[in-house]
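Figure 6 in text form: structure in, sequence out.
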């Protein structure tokens, strides 16, 4: 394939890469006073990258001799990534201005992370996988410690860096084992080798690769970094971590298991089932005693990853389609939840993160209280809210392959998670009022909260035909 054709297939990454370099030069000469303009420029670049998916970059096939794949699966994941990243860019300047930490580098780091995430979801070779993952991670380490004078932020960045380096080492060791025992780094070659039988060396490689990727999606038992990093990082950064990189890592894990390890489904399915059960149980139980809303949402993220893994455990087209639908609804629920957290400010404008501060919110900020309740009920999967639908799909995929005992356990564990979501709603509506939050400053943030709430409300069911068709098209691309 000519290089020009390969470049056309990677157009979204080219737009983000070149655009980030241009904005970096603007930041170098204009300084931090241009942060808002650079942020909106970065949002425009994400929009341009999303539009590029309508061309060959959305369904053009293989590029660079099989290192990169442009198909419906990668397009679906990239669209979710770009939307989540753009929203976290829009709400960040106001947050950093209030805290005196405005830096022009923030949107550029998000853009470079977006390039890495795009490579992750399109990777069809273990080397492309690793390069994309590291590009995303290097930007994320800086973002976690972005508020340098805040000890919690610095601690979050250090923890994320140390544990991320460990996970990268584990992943790289697994890749080297797979290369050593299969003789190739291409997903197709690995799949062919696995089809001939799974040797001991290949089994160890499979386990190490899945362990490294489990860290990136914060699945139990590789979840230990998540609550501390989510609590310590600035709230817009936490919203970013909980959405875009999570989608990228989950899509990458799905492509690796289905395309590269399809011949060893029975082997990786056991690992995925264990991680799914452990994540749903720990994510539900550990959240009950939390007093910080960001830590609670971190455990909520772990809990939701468990449910996504149930869909992957099915190993079928319906299972993968359920995974993609779940990720789409999860992004809306999580973005909306963190936008509500951004509204939690005291009279001086400083962030307030305790769950107790939400007491009686329904009497002081009824609209914000209603949005919070919608997101919490939807995260719990309580019908008729739209968060129920993806949970139904993943359990239906399990039943479709005869794994109904696992589906029953998953339904039981979802009840645990519902407890702490309902506890927040109870605090908002039935507890004595706490000191009122500062009034809303940004109509744009309010509009984004309203849009997210409408999507996860019963009105979201109107999107099922389009969302279901797109999810199934994405799933077919892997089979």
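Output sequence:
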């Amino acid at each position: 394939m000519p290089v020009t054709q390969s470049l056309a297939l990677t157009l979204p990454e080219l737009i983000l890469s070149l655009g980030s370099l241009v904005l970096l030069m603007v930041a170098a000469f204009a300084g931090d006073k241009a942060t808002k303009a650079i942020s909106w420029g970065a949002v425009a670049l994400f929009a341009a990258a999303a539009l590029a998916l309508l061309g060959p970059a959305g369904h053009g096939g293989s590029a660079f001799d099989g290192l990169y794949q442009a198909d419906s699966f990668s397009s679906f994941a990239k669209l979710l990534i770009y939307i989540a990243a753009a929203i976290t860019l829009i709400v960040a300047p106001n947050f950093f201005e209030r805290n005196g930490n405005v830096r022009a580098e923030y949107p550029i780091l998000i853009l470079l992370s977006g390039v890495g995430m795009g490579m992750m979801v399109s990777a069809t070779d273990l080397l492309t996988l690793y390069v994309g993952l590291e590009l995303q991670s290097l930007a994320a380490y800086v973002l976690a410690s972005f508020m340098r004078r805040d000890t919690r932020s610095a601690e979050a960045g250090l923890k994320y860096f140390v544990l991320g380096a460990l996970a990268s080492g584990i992943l790289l060791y697994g890749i080297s084992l797979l290369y050593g025992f299969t003789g190739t780094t291409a997903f197709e070659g690995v799949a062919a080798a696995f089809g001939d039988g799974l040797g001991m060396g290949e089994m160890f490689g499979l386990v190490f690769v899945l362990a490294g990727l489990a860290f990136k999606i914060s699945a139990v038992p590789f979840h230990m970094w998540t609550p501390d990093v989510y609590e310590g990082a600035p709230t817009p950064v936490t919203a970013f971590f909980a959405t875009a990189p999570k989608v990228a890592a989950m899509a990458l894990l799905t492509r690796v298991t289905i395309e590269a390890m399809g011949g060893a489904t029975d082997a990786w399915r056991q690992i995925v089932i264990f991680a799914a059960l452990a994540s749903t149980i720990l994510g539900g139980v550990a959240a009950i005693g939390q007093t910080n809303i960001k830590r609670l949402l971190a455990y909520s993220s772990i809990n939701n990853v468990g449910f996504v893994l149930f869909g992957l455990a099915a190993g079928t087209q319906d299972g993968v389609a359920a995974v993609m639908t779940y990720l789409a609804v999860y992004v809306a629920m999580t973005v909306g939840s963190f936008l509500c957290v951004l509204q939690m400010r005291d009279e001086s404008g400083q962030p307030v993160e305790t769950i107790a501060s939400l007491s009686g919110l329904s009497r002081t900020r009824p609209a914000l209280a209603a949005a919070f309740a919608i997101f919490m009920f939807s995260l719990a999967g309580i019908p008729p809210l739209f968060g129920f639908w993806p949970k139904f799909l993943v359990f239906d995929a399990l039943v479709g392959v005869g794994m109904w005992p696992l589906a029953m356990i998953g339904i039981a564990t979802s009840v645990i998670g519902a407890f702490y979501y309902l506890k927040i709603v109870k605090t908002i509506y039935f507890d004595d009022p706490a000191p009122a939050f500062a009034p809303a400053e940004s109509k744009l943030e309010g509009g984004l909260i309203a849009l997210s709430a409408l999507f996860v409300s019963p009105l979201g069911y109107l999107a099922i035909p389009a969302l279901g068709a797109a999810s199934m098209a994405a799933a077919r691309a892997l089979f």
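Caption detail: The mean pLDDT is 88.
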